[in-house]
Specification:
Number of strands: 13
Shape: globular
Strand content: 25-35%
Structural class: alpha/beta
Oligomer: single chain
Order of helices and strands: EHEHEHHEHEEEEEEEEEH
Number of helices: 6
Largest sheet: 8 strands, mixed
Radius of gyration: 16 Å
Length: about 200
Amino acid sequence: MIVIVDYGMGNLRSILNKFERMEVEAKISSDPAEIERADKLVLPGVGAFDAAMQNLRQRGLIPVLEKKVLQEKTPIMGICLGMQLFSKHSEEGNVDGLGWIDARTIKFRLNGNGLRVPHMGWNSISVDRTWGAMEGLETGSRFYFVHSYHVCCNDPADRLATTNYGIDFTSMVQRDNILGVQFHPERSHRYGARLLENFVRW
């Protein structure tokens, strides 16, 4: 069972629809008991970093997520803001993140090169290293992005892939059972579907 964590911010239904089309058992839930029973977790997110962390706290989800992810090593995928929440802190606000990845989240600084923020639309990844859930994905695979902030890893070993938008930024992170993607696999057609399939098999 894959549980898509509902903390009031995210593209939940479209992610669930993808899993249902894949005939994968999945559900949307904010119930700690259901999260506790999950075999895998998805932490989506659209919106502001501080509000997301506050929602996770108010719904009492941080303790069960930390137990599942840090102690039980349950596989988790963070999508867009969900990936940013894995970092220690964000320039978007004053609230600390989950801190599961040694990273910070910063706003795009594009130095007047004519590119607009948010970074929105299709872009390709450049794969930094091989890993099981990357099967069938390679440099040049294209995904759909919508974001104004990006993650900066303090440990390069956590970076799985980068993308160029005026600058090279981290578009995928992975440490142990934690996977984060800055793009939206649920909106990324065949490459997004392949990544979700890989996550299911992981």
